[in-house]
Amino acid sequence: VRVYLGFYYGSTPEVLVQFSGHIAEPFVSAGNGTVTARLKDRAWALEHARHSTTLYMPGTPSGYSGYPDDYIGALLDLVPLADRPSTDLDRGCFPLMFAWLDDDPLWEELGRVAAVQGGMVWFDKAGTLVFRDASFFVLNATSVHTFTTARDLQESWREADIWNHVVVRWSGGRVARLAELWAQTEPLPPLRAGDSTTVQANFGAPAYAVATPVADTDYRAVRHDGMEATKDLRVSAAAYAQRVMLTLTNEGSAPLYVTKLRLRGWPVDFQDEQTTEAEDAASIATYGRRTLQVRLLYVQSRGQAEAVRDFLLHRYKEPRATYSLRVRAIPWLEVGDRVTVRISRTGHDEDFFVMGMRQEFSARGGYWQTLTLLRCADLLPYSNWFVVGTTAYGTAGRWFF
Question: Of the residues 33, 65, 160, 286, which has the maximum number of CB atoms within 10 A of its CB?
Answer without folding.
Answer: 65
